[in-house]
């Protein structure tokens, strides 16, 4: 194993050896090397986080990974599967859990100082839900084995000891589960996504469909906001001149983050603004001429995502800014003809109050060296599970057994605070 990990790297475009059945894997270095037609055929059409333009922006930005690649499984000339991956030279595994769980991992870090800050290969989508892009359903058993073998081979070539399949929904991970387990992966539940199903003709209809208490809370918060004559909401198509302020407000949120993986930077935001896909609009709250809150919304097909938020914490609680920008995003998604909007992995109590379902997601994790793999298998799933329980609180059951679409029971709303994970919104 040691010789494999330290083997010389091949060029990113080199193909892996052919196997029986005519399958082979190519490792392509950029989204630009995949044809637009092929990507659009395989990627989820209604998920803006899987738009080609967002992956282009990720590659141009300095948001965490050292680099990106795309593992393409071909059967002869035909593409059967695509798996994006990104390379971290020093991924902080303790950043995937909360502060209490980081204390639990402190003894491990003392004994193995490099174990939790590791060269790692992250498979899936850094900013969204994980998928293996396939044509006409899950890849067959042979293609699954080839893909997992290729992931591990690529990790060895790049000297990336830890391999993580990030935030895969159960249905997405199920076809690969047996193959991953045989390859030494262990599994742990991740934080769920939050998704609001939209079947309403207007925002007023959406409010009317909420249970009584969330409906009263929403109207109370909107009244509190309207009472502030110095504040206003605008929906912006062009916001380039606001990017420095957007970044400053986003950093206020990240400074309060319990968990983190990516941190957006100016180059990423500039690339998103300059691109034509995904469609993007900014829900912006101003005090006079000063931006005090925003929610960056992305659109594809009938899907929307409230992708990243920023708040001025001098005003956020008293003016109910967190709730107000989310209500404006829901109104915008309805007006845009969307049938769903996602708000990612954070602040579960207000999002349950909005009516969001919790979408279960999982990690699959391994290490190329057996000794370190055994340590990770023993401690990391426990820490991830504990962090998940802490983040979800009273919503744990809803995240485990997904409720039917529509609002569920909601506890009292806490103060308007934001404790983001790696995908705050």
Structure commentary:
There is one protein chain. Helix 3 packs antiparallel against helix 10 (266-274). It contains 14 helices and 15 strands. The two termini are 41 Å apart. 45% of the residues are buried. The chain is α+β, with helices and mostly antiparallel strands.
What can be said about this structure in brief?
The chain has 425 residues and is α+β, with helices and mostly antiparallel strands. The protein has 14 helices and 15 strands.
Strand and helix layout:
Layout lengths: L1 H4 L17 E6 L7 H7 L9 H9 L6 E9 L2 E15 L6 H13 L5 E7 L9 E2 L6 H17 L4 E7 L1 H13 L3 E4 L3 E5 L5 H7 L2 H15 L4 E6 L6 H13 L10 H9 L4 E9 L2 E11 L2 E9 L9 H15 L4 E3 L5 H7 L2 E3 L2 E6 L2 H23 L3 H5 L25
Keywords:
seven-stranded mixed β-sheet; alpha+beta; eight-stranded mixed β-sheet; 425 residues; disordered C terminus; globular; 14 helices; 15 strands
Strand count, sense and closure of the main sheet? 8 strands, mixed
- The end-to-end distance, rounded to whole angstroms, is 41 Å
Share of residues in strands: 15-25%
Mean pLDDT: 85
**Secondary structure: helix percent:** 25-40%
């Amino acid at each position: 194993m040691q010789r494999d990990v330290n083997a010389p790297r091949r060029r990113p475009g080199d193909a892996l050896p052919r196997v029986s059945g005519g399958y082979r894997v190519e490792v392509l270095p950029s989204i630009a090397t995949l044809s637009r037609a092929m990507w659009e055929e395989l990627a989820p059409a209604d998920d803006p986080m899987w738009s080609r333009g967002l992956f282009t922006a990720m590659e141009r930005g300095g948001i965490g990974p050292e680099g990106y690649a795309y593992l393409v499984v071909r059967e002869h000339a035909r593409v059967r599967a695509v798996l994006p991956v990104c390379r971290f030279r020093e991924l902080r595994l303790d950043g995937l859990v909360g502060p209490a769980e980081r204390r639990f991992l402190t003894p491990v870090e003392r004994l193995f100082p490099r174990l939790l800050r590791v060269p790692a290969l992250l498979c899936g989508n850094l900013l969204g839900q994980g998928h293996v892009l396939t044509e006409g359903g899950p890849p067959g058993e042979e293609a699954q084995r080839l893909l997992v073998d290729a992931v591990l081979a690529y990790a060895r070539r790049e000297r990336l000891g830890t391999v993580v399949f990030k935030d895969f929904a159960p249905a997405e991970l199920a076809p690969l589960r047996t193959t991953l387990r045989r390859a030494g992966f262990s599994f742990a539940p991740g934080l769920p996504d939050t998704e609001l199903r939209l079947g309403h003709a207007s925002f007023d209809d959406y409010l009317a469909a909420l249970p009584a208490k969330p409906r009263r809370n929403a109207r109370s918060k909107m009244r509190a906001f309207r009472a502030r004559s110095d504040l206003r909401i605008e929906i912006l198509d062009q916001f380039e001149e606001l990017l420095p302020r957007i970044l400053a407000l986003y950093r206020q949120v990240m400074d309060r983050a319990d968990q983190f993986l990516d941190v957006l930077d100016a180059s990423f935001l500039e690339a998103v603004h300059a691109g034509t896909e995904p469609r993007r609009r900014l829900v912006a709250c101003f005090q006079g001429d000063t931006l005090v809150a925003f929610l960056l919304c992305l659109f594809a097909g009938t899907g929307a995502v409230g992708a990243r938020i920023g708040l001025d914490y001098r005003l956020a609680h008293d003016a109910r800014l967190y709730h107000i920008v989310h209500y404006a995003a829901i109104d915008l998604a309805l007006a845009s003809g969307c049938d769903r909007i996602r708000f990612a992995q954070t602040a579960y109590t207000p999002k349950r109050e909005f009516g969001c379902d919790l979408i279960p997601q999982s990690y699959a994790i391994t290490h190329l060296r057996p000794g370190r793999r055994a340590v990770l298998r023993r401690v990391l799933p426990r820490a991830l599970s504990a962090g998940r329980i802490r983040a979800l609180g009273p919503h744990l059951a809803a995240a485990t057994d997904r409720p039917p679409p529509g609002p569920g029971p909601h506890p009292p709303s806490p103060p308007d605070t934001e404790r983001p994970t790696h995908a705050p919104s």
